[in-house]
Structures are given as structure tokens and as C-alpha cells.
Amino acid sequence: MTGKGLTRPRVRVPANTRQLAKTSARLTSTPRSTMRYLGGDPSGVLAKRSAPIRSGSEDVRAAAARASALATDFMHNSGWIAGAVDQVITDTIGEGLKINYKPDLSKLGYDKKEEKEFAELVEKEFRAYANNPLEVDLAGQKKLAEMDDGVCRIYATKGEAYGVFSFMSPAERKKYGIRTGTKVSLVSPHKLKWETSQLIGLEDGIFKDDNGRHLKYRFQRKGKIGGLVDHDVDAFDGLGLCQVVQLMDRSENPDASRGVPLMTAVLNNMSFQEQLGNATLATALAQAIMAATVKSPDASEDIFQAFQALDGSDNEDIGEDLANLWRSRLEALQEGTINLSDGVRVNHLAPGEEFELHSSKTPNPHYVSFFQNLLREVARRIGATASSVTMDHTGATYSSVRMEYATIWPIVTRRRDRVVAPLTKVTFANWLDEEIAEGRIPFKGGYAAFRANREHVSQVDVLGPAQPTADDDKKESARKKRLENGVTSVRRECAADGVDYDEVQREISEEVKEFEKEGRLHPSVKVQGGDSQRSKVVKET
In this record, what's one Pfam family (predicted)? Predict the structure, then answer.
């Protein structure tokens, strides 16, 4: 018994169990495994990686300028990267984006026929405007399609681009001999000043209101006496028309005002690729230069050290004899030359010497596969197929190519809709406002009716190139089955091919009439009975 009536427990411990008790205690003291995030890092690799948490705007602000410079440098000095960017541009816009204007004007007094005629007139006039650099570009140098091309290129290397709109007065238009006043300027993001001031609502060169909406942009341009001066441009003019459109994919950094280059994530990869290529080339050149050597049994460094040791000693006569021996050997080598560049000549060698030819061992068998793997990572990031970037179609089949484009094409269409198409859409809206305001395109109710419904009337779809295919016959067979099963429409199929359905139907109708006048059947006319029945129908016609 101890104090307060407690009894100490007595435990019988067998002999020779002290070491077992220590081991048991050590096992019980080992920390137990727990289920948690980042728990599987026994090597400490993740612990060594520094990754602070900060806002997207801070990340962009810290990396944008340097990343833009590096991405631009790689595009200018690497044929692989420049070609990959060209492939992205080709997939995104092809020869240029096309508008598909289908307004719903039923509430404005238009019937279906008038609505269709109005849409055809607008599309025709806009094509003429967009394809004339003097009309669409403030500097009179680029067509709208070339600006779309520039947007893709700037987005890949700088992460964003800006379309700045201006309006020429009638006097200015008369000076240049042009008709329209709506003009576009494609501006690189480095001209938007990186400046932030909470006192005036300025964040990274963009003025914002309390809700975060853009009010104006602070660009920099050359002053009259040199240097750069600030130039603020309002986001919208007094009529509510867009004056500056920011072209970027905001989903990459949702809480950032500016963008970073598309290629930022693979800049290290590009540098590895360049280093690998340079090192491999240097090794191959060295092996090509040292294509042949002469192997001699005499030691060079040891012989000359012996000469130095004999010089000034009692064995000076021996050193002089050795020097005379080497002098005669060198004279013999001068007379018997080995030349592999200008005609192969191999003369006599000294006794004991061997002539060896070396074969190049660079690049090694794994060079091509490793180099292509680096390019695949670049292709994965920029949204292009690996085969189109590496130009290697080894082992490709119809199914593999189709699956490759099925994976990449949603990225292409998303980039087209979010980054490039807004420039064309805003240009169309501003141009249409001017055309109706100045009476060049008639509108029921005049400009007042249009302005009251401007947002609704100015809506337009933008079409890009069709998805590439490896087998046109299989593609058309699949299209036919979709149409027969009623899971698609001809209009949708035309849009997928990047063409306007109404324009195609109009052209086919005109061709059918021309063929009928000439006594022929149009290829689109289906005749039961094959070619023989088609010939019979043609004769009857």
C-alpha cells in the first residue's frame, strides 16, 4: 500500500529481456505514417523546391518582361521554335478569319428575305474593308488578316496584344483618298507602361474603377522632341464604342491584369534543346577535324623533360645526340606529309608509327529520340500536334493522326475564340456603326434604331480553318453518316470546314443553273442508277 490507498502494480519480467524492451521502446517512438497532402516526399525533393504563394498579378509582373525577351529571342534564332509558332498561326487562323453574320432582325421590321439580303450586303462590304490595308489599318500597311496573324505571334512570345481603334475625320480621309474613318492599330504589350498606383486606380498600366472594370490604358509613345511620353487611351468613347481591346487568355492568370508569353513554361526546355544541339554539333565537328592521327611509340612530354634534364649536365653530349636524332626525324616527317583534304596522300612514316582513321561517334543513337521528346513538350504547351512540330510522321496511322488532332483541336478553337477573334469582332462592330451612321449601309429606322439595338445587331460569328485530316475519303464517309443519322446539320458541317453555309448554297444554286444551260448535271445532283443513268438524264436535258 502507498499513500491514499493506492497499490503499485507488480510485473514479473523474465530474464534477458532488457534488449527487447529497448527495441520495443524504440519502435513505439518512431513517428507513425499519416494520410495527408505532400506526405510522400522521403527524398526531400519537394522540400528543396522553393514555391511561394502570391497573387497572379505579382507572378506576371515579376516574369513578363524577362520571359517575353527570352521567348522572342528563341523564336528569332531557332528554326524549330519559329516553325512551331507558324504552325500554331496556321491552325488558328489559316489564311485569315472569316465572318459569319446572321443577325435576327425580325423585331426591327425585317422579313427573312430582307434579313438575308442585309446580311449578304454587310458581309460583302466588310470583306472589301478588311482586305484593304489603306482602309482598315491606321498606318495603311496591314490587312485585318495580317493583324490576326500578328496577334497570334505576339501572344506566343509576349502573352497579350492590344488593338487600339481611332477615327479619322472627313478631312483626314480626303487627304489619304479613303472612304472609312474606323482604323485599327495592333500594339505590342511592351508599349503599355508597367506602372501601378493605388491612389489613381492604376494597375500595371490599366486604370480601373472600384469594380475592377477597365477605364483607360496608359501607353507610351515617342514624343516630339524624343524620348517616351505617356499617352492615355479611354477604353470606350462617348458613343460606347470600344477603343482598346486587350487580346489574351484570361484563364491562365485569372487574377492578373496582364499576360505572360505562351512559351514561358517551356523556356527551360528550349534552352536544353539548344544546348544539346550545340554540344552535339561541337563534338561532331571535333571528331570530323581529327579524322586521322599518327600513333607514335615515343613519348612527347617525357622526351622534352629529359632534354631539359640533360641540358647543362655531365651528359650534355648524350642530350645533343638525342636532339640531333629528333631533328632528323622531324625533317623526315616534313618531307613525308599526310594530307586528307586536297587529294589523299600518305607518304612514309617513321619506324614504329601507325596511321589511324577515326569514324564519327556523334550523335549517339539516343540523340534523335531525346531531341524529339524535348520538341514534344514544346508542342504540348503551345497547342500543336507533336508530328507537326517534329516533322516526324514515322508509324503514323489514320487513327493516331485523328486522335492527335481530336486532342489538340479544342485548344486551337478556344485560342481562336478567346485571343484572336475579339479583334475581328470589335473591328466589325465599330465599322458597322460607322457605315450605318453615315448612310452607306441602309438600316430600317436609321441610325437611331441601330444604336438602340447596336449590341444585338453587331453580333457576329468568326470562322477559322477546318481541322486537318489524314484521309478525306474516311472524313466524308463519317460526315455522311452523321447527316443520315440526324446528329448534325449541313450548316454545322460547313462551319466546321470554315465556310459560310449561305454562301455555299448560293454558289451551288448559281452553278446548277449554269450547268443546266450547258446541258450538264451538277455533281451535287443525285441520280439513281449510277453513271449510265446520269448520262441518260444529261442527254434528255
Answer: Phage_portal_2
